[in-house]
Design brief:
This protein has 316 residues and is α/β, with parallel strands linked by helices. It contains twelve helices and eleven strands. β2 (29-36), α2 (43-57) and β3 form a beta-alpha-beta unit. The relative contact order is 0.15.
């Protein structure tokens, strides 16, 4: 079976790091490139974190890293998520520096070039604001016919937001970009808080990895344990999670590889850009005859036990 060929678009915080490491360790996957963007941290820190993770994981082949947007299309950037992810974005863990340098292309240019060179072959997984993808669509309006699939970690329809009462952070940070992407006609699956909040990694899971993880993954598991300690603390304070946290970004990555982990529903959606209390909200038209927005696939249920098992199995 031919491997799944991925581009990952990241703002490398703790759960992005877990998703990147999963992609590098999962069977039958080739990561064609990683693009970075502001969000959990500024784009420079996200890029540095990404390069250091590649050094940690030693994938065995060079994976180009392209630097993307440092600001939203229209919205003024309102700080970063250091309270969630730590000052350096990965829970304060100090990873060894990397000798690899980013490529000269921007993230948008890189996405367009790889898609054009490999039409119908590339799965793009976005784990951050959608600014880079929106810019790529402006460079190449035919991108919807060039990418095999796009999986977006972001949004929520039936559950509360995690940035505002109704908005998830990745969509809230650049709602104009998200609305552009969601109405572009891309073959898109939204993996949002409706399913990611149900898919939880715990201290017991980390203990299992420490006992049974493959020898070559020992340093990776140690990084996961240390960075997730910071993440667990945040989620206990905010969501009453005890020694546990949702696998937001890893779930989206896993859905790109194993779509049957989730149940999806076609919905017409738009993203609210202007509302005082609703900016960043994914507005799904759930009427019997929906008219507002364009159809995308929205994940509404998840096989949580299997999803967590799939994640852990990449390191055992």
């Amino acid at each position: 079976m031919n491997p799944t060929r991925l581009i990952l678009d990241v703002d490398t915080g703790i759960d992005d790091a877990l998703a990147i490491l999963y992609a590098l360790k999962a069977p039958n996957v080739v990561v064609e490139g990683i693009t970075t963007i502001f969000g959990n941290v500024d784009v420079e820190q996200a890029t540095e974190n990404t390069l250091r993770l590649l050094t940690l994981a030693q994938p065995g082949y060079e994976i180009p890293v392209a630097v993307g947007a440092g600001t939203a299309l229209a919205k003024k950037t309102a700080g970063y998520a250091t309270g969630v992810h730590g000052e350096n974005g990965i829970g304060g863990v100090e990873l060894a520096s990397s000798s690899q340098q980013p490529v000269k292309e921007t993230a948008a240019e890189f996405i367009v070039r790889i898609a054009k060179e490999n039409p119908g072959e590339i799965v793009l997984v976005t784990l951050a604001h959608l600014t880079n993808l929106s810019k790529a669509l402006k460079l190449e309006p035919n991108l919807k016919n060039l990418l095999k699939k796009v999986v977006v970690m972001g949004g929520t329809v039936f559950r509360p937001g995690n940035k505002t009462p109704v908005a998830e952070a990745n969509i809230w940070g650049d709602p104009e970009a998200a609305d552009h992407v969601f109405t572009s006609g891309l073959p898109l699956t939204m993996v949002g808080l409706d399913v990611t909040q149900k898919t939880v990694i715990t201290r017991e899971h980390l203990n299992l990895l420490q006992r049974q993880g493959r020898e070559e993954n020992r340093e990776i598991i140690a990084f996961m344990d240390e960075s997730l300690t910071h993440y667990f603390k945040f989620y206990q304070e905010v969501n009453y999670f005890i020694e546990s946290a949702p696998l937001h970004d890893p779930l989206a990555l896993m859905v790109a590889l194993q779509p049957d982990l989730v149940t999806t529903r076609q919905m017409k959606v738009r993203v609210e850009c202007k509302g005082e209390h609703t900016a960043g909200m994914v507005v799904a038209d759930l009427r019997p005859q929906p008219k507002a927005g364009e159809f995308i696939e929205v994940a509404v249920e998840v096989d949580t036990e299997r999803a967590v098992g799939v994640f852990l199995s990449a390191f055992i």
